């Protein structure tokens, strides 16, 4: 069974999506912080990493950078799940989080609300 590590600090958000992923055949492991996620990842070696952006202590972009710098996880796909959609740049909206995700080695960006 393929393993997902999902790093998300909003515990109310996890159950419905975790249930869906498990129904689709994934083994889902959760962590509430990047530091906790790194410990779990070293034990389970996930096939996919899903991460929130806005978290206490360390944000998701830093987490992706940490995972991509570790040879065990450098080739693992990462997806950002976040409600953060854009940033105003010069008065115009830009896909700021998606761009930052790619710059830091992330593979995909999913907007949730």
Give the topology, please.
Blueprint: E1 3-7, H1 14-23, E2 27-31, H2 34-44, E3 48-51, H3 60-69, E4 78-82, E5 87-89, E6 92-94, H4 96-103, E7 108-111
Parallel strand pairs: 1-2, 1-3, 3-4, 4-7
Antiparallel strand pairs: 5-6
Overview of the molecule:
The protein is of the alpha/beta class and 113 residues long. It has one domain (3-111): Rossmann fold. It has four helices and seven strands; from the N terminus they run E-H-E-H-E-H-E-E-E-H-E. The protein has helices spanning 14-23, 34-44, 60-69, 96-103, and strands at 3-7, 27-31, 48-51, 78-82, 87-89, 92-94, 108-111. A five-stranded parallel sheet has the order 2-1-3-4-7, sandwiched between helices. The protein has a two-stranded antiparallel ribbon with strand order 5-6. The longest helix has 11 residues, at 34-44. The radius of gyration is 14 Å and the shape is globular. The mean pLDDT is 80.
């Amino acid at each position: 069974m393929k393993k997902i590590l999902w790093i998300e600090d909003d515990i109310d958000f996890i159950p419905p999506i975790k249930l869906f992923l498990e129904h689709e055949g994934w083994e889902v492991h959760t962590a509430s912080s990047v530091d906790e996620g790194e410990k779990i990842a070293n034990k389970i070696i996930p096939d996919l990493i899903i991460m929130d952006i806005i978290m206490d202590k360390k944000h998701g972009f830093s987490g992706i950078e940490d995972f991509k710098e570790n040879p065990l996880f450098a080739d693992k796909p990462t997806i950002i799940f976040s409600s953060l959609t854009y940033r105003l740049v010069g008065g115009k909206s830009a896909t700021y989080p998606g761009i930052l995700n790619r710059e830091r080695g992330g593979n995909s960006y999913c907007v949730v609300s």
